[in-house]
């Protein structure tokens, strides 16, 4: 003790004072255990455990490099703490920024405290570079994958939680669930990274060369694959068998089970091939279905709440639904080979309050069951189940009024459940409408192979139309009630889409009676549609067209959470706090339902066309179309799924204008505007919307009523003037445009 050792005595000195306020020098980012960024000037007490003997000992918190080091520690607590902290950081990174102006990279220290008082998610404006990209470049994916193999359950659970924070955005899932009952909301674009260069290179390859390219892809290392596509890299690193082991053998806590189901759902959304790998993984789906979607279970008790096993879990049903949306063959495997059909019957034959479950979970799982059934019915599958459960469906529909009048905390879940049920009835109506056509096709085929008609026929669905029409009339009246206004606005678009499906197929049935149908349509127009269209609540929504539009607000859109090219997302965080297509004040779902029904009605009863002229002549619609005619939307994962819905609204407005221009002089005054919008809409159309291009070319664009107002047709056809690129267009749209240009040249000549 007599020997003086100055180096060791340095450790017992007082800590240096933190960085002075006002400095503009960049410094290393440090986080607390909740994932919150700590300002450099913050002087936190040492008992919080955030100080250590690493670099910058005067600063509280841990840097990303130090967290990586801790995650490889031999101490279990340090490994778990580091992984949980990384999960918290990723969760906050994927939340939205709420600042209007962009904050410089090297900001004064005194502004940190104000920034950190706002909601988390402003890292992309405070920090230099992307946190997610930095973590991925540093090997976070491999770190988490190795931690999943840890024999200590706590470390494994922390790795699952961190992987969920990296892959899954809860608000993206909420937005997709909210738009499920919209027109064509059942399907969603795959969340694949952009690979335009690879697609162009593979476009001219023959089969043998494509096989060589596939072999080359298989020879890539895990790092190279993960650098291009995070989900594909995880699949290559055998993520699915490990998750199956966690569920089947480890049997973790309910929180870890939920995280695993979220990860599997995100993998299934990646692509149809990824969804197939989930289905093909040995014993994975069998474990999910047997443990989290059992056909029988006991009433929940205080002990059973500590384990998710042996009880139905709503997210397990959602995983099955997302897998079913990947294709009809995957859906058939789930229904027939894995016993999902029996589970649908078990869950939907009783009311939610009779399922011996928590009320919230019962509503959520029955909602997902209806959505899964709607997806299957869209493929023409599980239709016999409709006949078997018809009494239960009618019983649920008869209780709609009492559901809407309720004001408890379950109202939002009840509305989602009713919307999913209406989507199911819409899909069953579409399938039943094809029964007669397929049956007559089998008779004409005379021994040739022909798809069999579905078991549900028009007679099975026709009886529901008066009941649902009565619901719609009641919903329109409830718009005057401030308490029920928001609830009925959520349901009205689903009712309109159902009625469009009903009348669209009614004219093709042998029971079709033209005179009675025309009278019914006149009553529907005068008693329901016109009062709905002229209602002050609906007019107030229509005024939000431009503010809710994705097409018109590309440059002024709020800051989105940071995303990386190899892990795309929908940029939905913060959707409740900003204008957009998904919020309640957005008019697009209602306009889509009205436009679809208007188009079907005017096809059957052309004399009613003038009744709907007020929609295309309204000042908000005209202003919105003017803005669209000069817009240049960009294509990305965060916008394509919303642009698809907005394209439908534009198309339906143009179709209504096409019917009105020859017979309504006031509408004809705006013919050049409608024609210009049709021209700019054509190259915007996304894959899967080629039929819209065909309809536009067949009606609006080459209509003599519109061409007479447009003298400079070839000039307006230039895609470069609109900021579009030829390679960005789908094959179907390219073919349509080539035909378009050829015919326009002939017309001009």
TrEMBL record:
RPAP1 C-terminal domain residues: 28-93
Biased composition (Acidic residues): 196-205
Tree of life domain: Eukaryota
Start and end residues of each stretch annotated as Disordered: 195-221
One Pfam family named in its UniProt record: RPAP1_C
Cited InterPro entries: ARM-type_fold, RPAP1/Rba50, RPAP1_C
Record field: compositional bias (Basic and acidic residues): 208-221
Name of this chain's protein: RPAP1 C-terminal domain-containing protein
Taxonomic classification: Eukaryota, Metazoa, Chordata, Craniata, Vertebrata
């Amino acid at each position: 003790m007599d020997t003086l050792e100055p180096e060791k005595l340095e450790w017992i000195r007082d800590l240096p004072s933190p960085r002075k306020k006002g400095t503009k020098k960049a410094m290393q980012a440090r986080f607390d255990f909740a994932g919150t960024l700590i300002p450099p000037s913050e002087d936190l007490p040492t008992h919080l455990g955030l100080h250590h003997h690493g670099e910058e000992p005067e600063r509280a918190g841990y840097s990303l490099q130090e967290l990586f080091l801790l995650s490889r520690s031999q101490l279990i607590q340090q490994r778990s703490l580091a992984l949980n902290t990384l999960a918290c950081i990723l969760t906050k990174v994927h939340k939205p920024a709420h600042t209007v102006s962009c904050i410089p990279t090297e900001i004064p220290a005194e502004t940190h405290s104000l920034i950190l008082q706002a909601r988390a998610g402003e890292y992309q404006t405070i920090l230099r570079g992307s946190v997610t990209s930095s973590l991925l470049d540093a090997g976070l994916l491999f770190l988490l994958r190795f931690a999943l193999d840890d024999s200590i359950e706590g470390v494994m659970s922390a790795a699952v939680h961190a992987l969920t924070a990296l892959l899954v955005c809860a608000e993206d899932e909420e937005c997709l669930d909210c738009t499920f009952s919209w027109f064509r909301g059942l399907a969603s674009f795959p969340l694949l990274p952009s690979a335009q260069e690879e697609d162009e290179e593979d476009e001219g390859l023959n089969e043998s060369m494509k096989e060589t390219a596939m072999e080359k892809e298989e020879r890539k290392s895990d790092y190279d694959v993960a650098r291009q596509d995070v989900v594909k890299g995880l699949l290559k690193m055998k993520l699915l068998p490990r998750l199956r082991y966690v569920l089947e053998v480890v049997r973790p806590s309910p929180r870890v089970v939920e995280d695993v189901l979220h990860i599997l759902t995100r993998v299934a959304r990646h692509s149809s091939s990824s969804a197939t790998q989930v289905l093909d993984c040995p014993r994975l789906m069998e474990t999910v279905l047997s443990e989290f979607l059992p056909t029988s279970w006991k009433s929940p008790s205080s002990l059973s709440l500590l384990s998710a096993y042996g009880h139905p879990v709503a997210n397990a049903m959602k995983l099955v639904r997302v897998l079913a949306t990947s294709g009809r063959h995957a859906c058939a495997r789930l229904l027939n080979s894995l016993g999902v059909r029996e589970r649908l019957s078990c869950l939907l034959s009783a009311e939610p309050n009779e399922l011996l479950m928590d009320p919230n979970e019962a509503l959520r799982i029955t909602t997902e069951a209806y959505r899964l059934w709607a997806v299957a019915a869209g493929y023409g599958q599980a239709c016999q189940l409709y006949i078997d459960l018809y009494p239960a469906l009618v019983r649920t529909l008869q209780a709609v009024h009492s559901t809407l009048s309720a004001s408890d905390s379950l109202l939002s879940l009840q509305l989602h459940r009713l919307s999913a049920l209406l989507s199911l009835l819409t899909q069953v109506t579409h399938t039943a409408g094809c029964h007669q056509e397929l049956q007559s096709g089998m008779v004409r085929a005379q021994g040739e192979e022909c798809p069999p008609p579905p078991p549900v026929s028009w007679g099975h669905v026709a009886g529901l139309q008066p009941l649902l029409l009565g619901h719609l009339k009641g919903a329109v009246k409830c718009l005057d009630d401030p308490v029920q206004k928001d609830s009925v606005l959520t349901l009205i678009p689903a009712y309109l889409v159902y009625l469009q499906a009903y009348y669209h197929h009614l004219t093709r049935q042998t029971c079709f009676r033209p005179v009675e149908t025309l009278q019914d349509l006149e009553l529907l127009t005068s008693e329901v549609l016109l009062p709905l269209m002229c209602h002050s609540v609906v007019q107030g929504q229509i005024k939000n067209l431009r503010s809710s539009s994705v097409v018109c607000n590309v440059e002024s859109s709020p800051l989105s959470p940071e995303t990386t090219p190899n892990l795309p997302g929908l940029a939905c965080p913060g959707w409740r706090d900003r204008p957009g297509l998904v919020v309640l004040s957005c008019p697009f779902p209602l306009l889509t339902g009205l436009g679809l029904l208007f188009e079907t009605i005017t096809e059957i009863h052309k004399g009613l066309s003038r009744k709907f002229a007020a929609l295309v002549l309204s000042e908000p619609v005209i202003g919105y179309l003017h803005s669209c005619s000069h817009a240049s939307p960009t294509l990305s994962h965060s916008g394509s799924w919303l642009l698809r819905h907005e394209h439908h609204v534009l198309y339906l407005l143009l179709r209504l204008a096409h019917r009105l221009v020859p017979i309504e002089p006031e509408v004809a005054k705006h013919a050049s505007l409608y024609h210009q919008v049709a021209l700019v809409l054509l190259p915007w159309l996304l894959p899967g919307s080629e039929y819209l291009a065909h309809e536009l070319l067949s009606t609006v664009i080459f209509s003599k009523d519109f061409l007479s107002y447009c003298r400079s047709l070839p000039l307006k056809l230039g895609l470069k003037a609109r900021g579009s690129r030829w390679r960005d267009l789908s094959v179907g749209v390219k073919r349509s445009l080539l035909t378009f240009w050829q015919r326009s040249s002939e017309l001009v000549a």
